[in-house]
Amino acid sequence: MHDVIVVGARCAGSPVAMLLARRGHRVLMVDRSSFPSDAISTHYLHQTGLSRLKAWGLLDAVIDAKTPPIRKMHYLNNGIELNGFADPIDGIDAVYCPRRIVLDEILVNAARGAGVEVLEQFTVTDLVFSEGKVVGVRGREADGPEREFRASLVVGADGVHSKVASKVGAELYNVRPAAGFTYYSYYSGLDWGMHHKTGFNEQWFGTWPTNDNLNMVAIICTKRHLKEFRQDPERRFQAVLDDVAPEMGAQLREQGRREEPLRPMRYPDNYYRRAYGPGWALVGDAGYHKDPITGWGITDAFLHGEMLAERIHEGLSGQRIMEEALADYNKERDEQSAGVYDYTTMIAELKLPPFFDAVLRAISTSDEWTTKMLGVIAGGVEDHEIFAPDSLKRLYDDAGVPEEKRIYDPF
């Protein structure tokens, strides 16, 4: 009998399991994959996410894996440029984009090191219920016989197609349609740093360095481009860079060498799921998913994983009734993620509403305001420091924006 079973061992599941085991709880973690293994991902770790790795004693392992530091961001959106970097968060003055074959193994090994029992290549086929409460899981390890494990709580950290969420009927809410689709791959021969560029034709591309001297290069287009893209993905991939940033498109063609196949990523609608119920909880994409364009998936998985582990510990240790602790986790998760969710789903449309166009144009006139905006994106500066009415007035005053061109209401 375990205290907790965690289904899914990647960026949400491993931190939950590790942190609970460090508190002395008996934890079983299962995953249908074996490690090290790759996963579809943006790879991007905001400074806020890196601060959690630092607190857990794992940041050095990411750096020691020769993950290159990034200390400047080049941001372009419909002709508006922001170039710079956010102020340090918890002493962290860079961001890192490790490949998942690197990051996930670090996380799984940390969970093992904390005392978590890890079963790889274990596919959960069903949950075990008793009197309406989840009390365990059933599944198979590779081609072996069906096995059953029991626990006080089962945590679903098994992604957007979560088996746990499906079996408990976790309801969706605040659903917003997915705006686009992604293709990405890895290129050698480029020295680009980090770029995040949106063109005028509902097209975006991003690039950042990752392990093994490679650059990840990704494109996002709105759904109206999908049919044409499918007919010739390689040509259309190149065409997006040529259209959004012609000089970089030429460099990709002349200097870049693609080292792996193009990877398509069609993602579901943006959503929240109810994150708890009798004997179960959800974390990561299993409970909350948004468009990948802002790269906040891994960081939110870390933040919410830590939050959930603390609430579970409170319940298991008798400090609080478990249901109350998990309800508080659900509420806090929703409140803390609301700003990122709104911003992400807005940016994902690949066209700026008039309010954000006016604000970003004003921000682009000042290094100070640019640093502050990049701090908002990084999670180190609160939204109100730019978007509250008095902050907007100071911004517009500093940028010399005429009164008739000032927009204060995003709606």
- CATH H-level name of the largest domain... which superfamily? FAD/NAD(P)-binding domain
Helix-and-strand structural type:
alpha+beta
**What global shape is seen?**
globular
- The CATH C-level name of the largest domain is Alpha Beta
The residue fraction in helices comes out at 25-40%
Radius of gyration: 22 Å
Low-confidence stretches: none
Number of strands: 19
Number of domains: 3
Percent of sequence in beta strands: 25-35%
Mean pLDDT: 96
Report the CATH topology name of the largest domain: FAD/NAD(P)-binding domain
Q: Major beta sheet, specifics?
A: 8 strands, mixed
**N-to-C CA distance:** 52 Å
The assigned CATH architecture of the largest domain is 3-Layer(bba) Sandwich
In DSSP terms (H or I, runs of 4 or more residues), the helix count works out at: 14
Domain FAD-binding: 3-340
Pfam families: FAD_binding_3
InterPro entries: FAD-bd, FAD/NAD-bd_sf, Geranylgeranyl_reductase
Protein name: Dehydrogenase (Flavoprotein)
Overall description:
It comes from Micromonospora nigra. Residues 3-340 form the FAD-binding domain. InterPro entries: FAD-bd (IPR002938), FAD/NAD-bd_sf (IPR036188), Geranylgeranyl_reductase (IPR050407). There is one protein chain. The protein folds into three domains: 2-44 and 97-175 and 268-344, FAD/NAD(P)-binding domain, CATH 3.50.50; 180-265, D-Amino Acid Oxidase, Chain A, domain 2 (2-Layer Sandwich), CATH 3.30.9; 354-405, no CATH class. 38% of the residues lie in helices and 25% in strands. It is built from 14 helices and 19 strands. Strands 1, 2, 5, 6, 7, 8, 17 and 18 form an eight-stranded mixed sheet that branches. Strands 3, 4, 10, 11, 12, 13, 14 and 15 form an eight-stranded mixed sheet that branches. Helix 1 (13-22) packs parallel to helix 4, helix 2 packs across helix 9 (297-316) and helix 7 packs across helix 8 (246-255). It is globular, with a radius of gyration of 22 Å. The relative contact order is 0.16.
